[in-house]
Amino acid sequence: MGSGRETRPVLSLSIRRLPRLLNAGNYAAAAEQFPRWNTRAAMVLSDLLSRADARAGELASAYDRARIAGLACEASYNALVKPAG
Asked: pTM, whole model, 2 decimals?
């Protein structure tokens, strides 16, 4: 997935367009900008959720490895301090 850096200049120009139109009193043209904003907001949210999901997977994997290591450590300790039988 791309970093989004290649679209920033275009987004920057578009983001400035809506307030400029509103401040100029051009409400019809400003209203035409709303679908573009909604689409971009959905894209940003989708990207954010994808990254959050990927990070959650990384953290779950790290937790699983730590849990397995902890259980192995506990089993080794128990084998040393508890007599067999």
From this structure: 0.51
